Amino acid sequence: MHAAAVAQLQGALNQSFKTDAARFNRRSPRGGLISMTMKVDSRP
Q1: How far apart are CA 29 and CA 21, in angstroms?
Q2: Helix/strand/coil for 33
Q3: b/e for 21-35, b at 16 or more Cβ within 10 A?
Q4: What is the Cα gyration radius of the chain?
Q5: Where are the alpha helices (DSSP H) in the chain?
Q6: Is 31 left (phi over 0), alpha (psi -120 to 50) or beta?
Q7: pLDDT for residue 28 is more than 90
Q8: Which of 1, 7, 18, 38 is least enclosed, having the fewest CB within 10 Å?
Q9: What is the mean pLDDT of residues 16-22?
Q10: Could you give the dihedral angle defined by the CA atoms of residues 5, 8, 12 and 17, in that order, rounded to the nearest 10 degrees?
Q11: Rounded CA separation 32/43 (Å)
Q12: In 10 A of CB 14, how many CB atoms?
């Protein structure tokens, strides 16, 4: 049961990080002097 709970929590966190990164990338200005993007890699 413990492993299932950990897996569910990891899945929720990974999805949350991916959503936040996509939101950051959409909102960041393009074409400026400095450009930043966020990428989430959910591999263990």
Answers
A1: 14
A2: coil
A3: eeeeeeeeeeeeeee
A4: 15
A5: 2-27
A6: left
A7: no
A8: 1
A9: 96
A10: 90
A11: 31
A12: 14
Give Cβ neighbours of residue 28 (< 8 Å, ≥ 6 apart): 35, 36, 37
DSSP classification of residue 38: -
Among candidate residues 18, 37, 34, 14, the one with its CA nearest the CA of residue 26:
37
Go through the chain and tell me how many residues it has: 44
Contacts of 36 (CB under 8 A, 6+ apart): 28
Identity of residue 32 = G
Question: What gap in Å lies between CA 25 and CA 16, rounded to an integer?
Answer: 14
Residue type, 11: G
